[in-house]
Amino acid sequence: MQHLDKRLSVIASLFTPGGRGIDVGTDHGYLPVALVQSGAALSMLATDVRPGPLDSARRCVRENGLEGQIETRLADGLDGLPLAGITDIIIAGMGGQLIAEILSRRVSELGGVNLLLQPMTQAPYLRQWLCENGFAIRQERCAVAAGKAYAVIQAAFTGEKIPCPPLYALVGRSSEDEGEDACTYLETLLGREEKRLRGLSASASPNPSEIAEAETLTAGLREILAARKQKGE
């Protein structure tokens, strides 16, 4: 059975049971192999824009004897890929802006698809883009792997655009995850905002609006963490 780290395990846990999925930017192909091995996925299409990682994925698929259930393909995002019959699309390990750009090219075809998105950076950008382009964030699950905290966003296209205030863009629904990894994720966000606030305040030409926003976000994160601590007591 293919071993997955905590980050990939969380993504796998949100996959539609018995679904057919696409893993965009599959890298070594560990996730599609694990999904098929466990029976969670009936079939997977594993893609990458780079030939090197795709060769690694093909090797992993071949070594596990899953050529009949996992197809590998060189592709840029979702460009040119068949989406008919696909239940899940995984886009993980990329920047939030790149994930948004990949989705933007096939928005009209994503109705009914379970989107599992894991931004390495620019998560606020991705959340804001989702809200502004008719996607609902169903839930978020956090994971700590190799000393870093990540949020996995489960989203679906509804066509309804919703407001995305700055604190929601920063936190999303990660605050609803009751696991310890969510605390680590939120504490990481707080640390970054506190550092940004110190930098803005110490600037030779401080921007009052930027400082006010950083203060609001910092206060909001502190309130979220305090409420979680109180709930756990």
TrEMBL record:
The keyword Methyltransferase applies. It holds the Pfam family Methyltransf_18. It comes from the Bacteria. The keyword Transferase applies. Keywords: Methyltransferase, Transferase. GO terms for biological process: methylation. One of its GO terms (molecular function) is tRNA (adenine(22)-N1)-methyltransferase activity. This is SAM-dependent methyltransferase. It comes from Candidatus Faecivivens stercoravium.
